UniProtKB/TrEMBL annotation:
GO terms for cellular component: endomembrane system. One of its GO terms (biological process) is intracellular manganese ion homeostasis. Keywords: Membrane, Transmembrane, Transmembrane helix. InterPro entries: Ccc1_fam. This is DUF125-domain-containing protein. It is found in: Endomembrane system. It comes from Aureobasidium namibiae CBS 147.97. The lineage of its organism: Eukaryota, Fungi, Dikarya, Ascomycota, Pezizomycotina.
Length: 285
């Protein structure tokens, strides 16, 4: 039995391997690849599999918890000079409620401003594409130039993307760096920040519920220790949520994040407590 087809097949493969890569990929291949990549990058977030917690939610929780652990503690430390734990509890609860509402409203208004900025940029970009389509290619080139791609490839991608129905979304995401915010972003931000502030501010108040009214200094010492412990635990969990939980390196990163959070929050609370004590002493004199 003879295998007369083996040599021609090998020769054909060898001939293909000897051809330059640029000759093997036509402009149609490049455009198809670019279209697939752009379509995948512009796929709605709802259709993607989420494997981690949204970074914005973590950021909102950090803002709420860090403020909640430090600001109410400073207030309760100042009120401890009055020598009555009931006064500390009432003042701390009032501050918690007002602070949580204020922080939540601030987060809501901030998210709404972000949505308004996105809509304004989206509208202006759409008008620019409709009135001066020739600027689309230059905008695409300005996005791709930092990657030091070949000029021919940049030109082909610019030509294809300028005719793509996803051009507006591409420019919003990669030129203006403004992905479309979720419709529930404002509500989620307000609830996350407000609830985190309320939970974080309640922690320093807990010791005052379990001591006699006259033992305010004892409650203050316990409150300071509880606050530092919660700051470390929060910093550790925050870092591990982002970097991961497994591995010695990840554990060390969590410890560093916890110490950093504890140091920053402790310094802020200490400064606030010192200022309140200073004002109290000046008022007493």
């Amino acid at each position: 039995m003879s295998f007369t087809w083996a040599k021609p097949l090998w020769t054909s493969s060898q001939d293909l391997s000897e051809k330059p890569y640029s000759q093997l990929r036509t402009s149609t291949d490049v455009e198809s690849l670019a279209s697939a990549q752009v379509d995948a990058s512009l796929e709605p977030e709802a259709h993607r599999k989420k494997t981690v917690i949204d970074a914005r939610v973590i950021s909102d929780a950090i803002i709420g918890l860090s403020d909640g652990l430090t600001v109410p503690f400073a207030l309760t430390a100042g009120l401890s000079a009055l020598g009555d734990s009931r006064v500390v509890i009432l003042g701390g609860v009032a501050e918690l409620i007002a602070g949580a509402i204020s922080m939540g409203l601030g987060g809501y208004l901030g998210a709404k401003s972000e949505e308004e900025s996105y809509r304004a940029t989206y509208s202006s970009t759409r008008e620019q594409i409709a009135e001066t389509p020739c600027t689309a290619a230059s905008s695409i080139s300005s996005v791709l130039n930092p990657f030091e791609l070949p000029d021919t490839l940049v030109n082909e991608l610019s030509l294809h993307l300028s005719k793509s129905p996803h051009l507006l979304d591409f420019l919003m995401r990669f030129e203006h760096m403004q992905p479309e915010p979720a419709s529930s972003r404002a509500i989620t931000c307000a609830i996350t920040i407000g609830l985190s502030y309320l939970i974080g501010g309640l922690v320093p108040l807990i010791p005052y519920f379990f001591v006699p009214r006259e033992d305010v200094l004892v409650a203050l010492c316990w409150s300071f220790g509880v606050m530092l412990s919660c700051l470390f635990l929060f910093g550790y969990c925050k870092t591990c949520f982002v970097a991961g939980w497994k591995g010695d390196g990840r554990v060390w990163q969590g410890v560093v994040g916890g110490v950093q959070m504890m140091f920053v929050g402790g310094v802020a609370a200490g400064c606030a407590m010192g200022i309140i004590r200073l004002f109290h002493n000046l008022a007493s004199d």
